[in-house]
Amino acid sequence: MANGQIIGVAASLSHSGRFRKILLALLGAVIVLGLLMAPIEKGAVGARINNEGDGLWFAITTVTGVGYGDMVPVTTGGRMVAVLLEVFGVVLFGAVMAFVSVELLRYQEDFNMRRILERLDEQDKKMEEIKKEIGYLVKK
């Protein structure tokens, strides 16, 4: 995909109010729940999420579905936050990817339609030339 195509898709997505709302909700959930994870887990026996950076890392990997498993909540509160992140991740991250996919498909369809219309215009020009030639031959 060329830079122009990427810019076109990005511009189209940036004008979509629904896309912006979903993206902001996803980012908000990741930041809030990720930052909330550190104080919940801090000090627990076997806790690997000890600071806000760890909490954000856990939130991002959980929401995107990557889930490396390097950080896992050990407290009940941390696990409840993790469940919320998983649900938000599946729903909102999936919606973001669906918007991007639809916009890519729409851009490709527009490109193909323009090519078809250009080819039809070329055929019309050729037909006009042939009609002129036939008209000239018939008059002779």
From TrEMBL:
Membrane-topology descriptor: Multi-pass membrane protein
GO molecular function: voltage-gated potassium channel activity
Stretches that traverse the bilayer: 22-40, 80-105
Record keyword Transmembrane present: yes
tRNA processing as UniProt keyword: no
Record domain Potassium channel: where: 30-101
Pfam hit, one: Ion_trans_2
GO cellular component: voltage-gated potassium channel complex
Keywords: Ion channel, Ion transport, Membrane, Transmembrane, Transmembrane helix, Transport
Compartments in which it is found: Membrane
Record-level GO BP terms: action potential
Protein name: Potassium channel domain-containing protein
Source organism: Candidatus Collierbacteria bacterium RIFOXYA2_FULL_46_10
